[in-house]
Each structure stands twice: as C-alpha cells, then as structure tokens.
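Per-residue structure
===
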Amino acid sequence: MTTHRDLMVWQKGIQFVKTVYRVTSVFPREEMFGLTQLIRRAAVSVPSNIAEGAARKGAVEFSKFLYIARASLSEVDTQLVIAKELQYTNESLRPEIDVLFKLINGLIRSLKAEK
C-alpha cells in the first residue's frame, strides 16, 4: 500500500523543513516568536498538507490539500524574501522552492487527469 511517505514531493517537503529550520536558527533572538516562527510554521505546513491530502478519499480532496501546501510554500518564499531584506540571511532557498512548486503542480495535474 502506498502512503504519503512514498511520495517524492512529501520527502522533498521534509528535507525543505529541515533546511528552513537550519536557516532560521541564526535569525535574531527577538524574531523567535515573529518571523522565525512564521517561516517555520508555513514550512511545516507544506509536507503536513501533502500527507493529510494523501490520506483523504479521492483526487478532489487530495488536490485541495495540495493547493494549501502550495499556498504555504508561497508564504515561506515571501517570508524568506523579507528575512533577506532585513539581512537575517543571505541564503537563497529558491531552488528548493522551485522544485517543490513543480512537484506539487505536477501532482495536481495528474490528479485532475484522474477525474
């Protein structure tokens, strides 16, 4: 039986979360309950929504959760731009974000084809 753990997009999402935690670990201490927490929560939301969607019944429900995961990824992207503008980091996660966007979009397209 296939589960969310078998999906490459979920696996890449988990790796992305680990990278986000590493990058945000050097943010200023006063941001611990501000930008740091926002970025981390949005990043965790990506694989979490992929997993929840995969556990739902049917392609339509799964797609809804993939759209939420994609929106969370957009949040992380925006928040990381803000962090870079504030000079909290000079690291770019753009390549990882682009890969996740492509994988999520591809899975959405394949689920639409199933309908």
In short: The mean pLDDT is 95. The two ends are 21 Å apart (CA to CA).
